[in-house]
């Protein structure tokens, strides 16, 4: 990959991670609606079946297992993995990042910690934000309140969350999601500050 493209991507990638149930998707939607920084949400690809109301190309790119595997072999993913050992894969297509960068926007990657670490190996200058509800106890309360998990599934998610929280020191920024509005505003302020600092740095050069 040409160095110029590498540098351009590095300046435009924003990774938001956090445990399942931390409210990432809701906060990201609010961020896209309200933040003045030009943002582009990278739509992930998955092999799982669409849920009621989900739209291909909007919620996810829904790919067959064969198509996902073909693209993975072709190196079309920035990162990808099998999630929760259920046989379904999720990943970030390089073409999605290219599309956002070509529009002059910052590309948001809403991905798990393993995906984030894989992206950082390639683009260590990416902005990294870890979003969480404040504690495992609060996370468990929110998951139980959703009422969508079996006890076994809930315990599995909590165990994954414990492991994910160990990665927190490897992120540049930590945001506690107390309310959607507060978390989105805090992330937006961070991005505005980074945008201003980078603009000032380019102006000085």
Please characterize this protein's 3D structure.
This protein has a domain at 3-42 and 104-204: 3-Layer(aba) Sandwich (Rossmann fold). Helices cover 48% and strands 19% of the residues. It contains 8 helices and 9 strands. It has helices at residues 3-10, 24-34, 65-73, 94-102, 113-122, 136-146, 151-165, 180-204, and strands spanning 13-17, 39-41, 45-46, 61-62, 77-82, 89-93, 106-110, 127-132, 173-176. The strands form 2 sheets. A 5-stranded parallel beta sheet has the order 2-7-1-8-9. Helix 2 crosses helix 8 (180-204).
Please sum up the structure shown.
By secondary structure, this protein is of the alpha/beta class.
What order do the helices and strands come in, and which of them pair?
Blueprint: H1 3-10, E1 13-17, H2 24-34, E2 39-41, E3 45-46, E4 61-62, H3 65-73, E5 77-82, E6 89-93, H4 94-102, E7 106-110, H5 113-122, E8 127-132, H6 136-146, H7 151-165, E9 173-176, H8 180-204
Parallel strand pairs: 1-7, 1-8, 2-7, 3-4, 8-9
Antiparallel strand pairs: 3-6, 5-6
Strand count: 9
Corresponding CATH superfamily of the domain at 3-42 and 104-204 = P-loop containing nucleotide triphosphate hydrolases
Can you identify the CATH class of the domain at 3-42 and 104-204? Answer: Alpha Beta
CATH topology of the domain at 3-42 and 104-204: Rossmann fold
Q: Count the helices. How many? A: 8
Global morphology? globular
Radius of gyration: 17 Å
Low-confidence stretches: none
On the 0 to 100 scale, the average pLDDT is 91
Share of residues in helices: 40-55%
Note the run of SSEs as H and E.
HEHEEEHEEHEHEHHEH
Reported for the largest beta sheet, the result is: 5 strands, parallel
- Please state the structural category: alpha/beta
Q: What is the percentage of strand-forming residues?
A: 15-25%
Distance between the termini: 25 Å
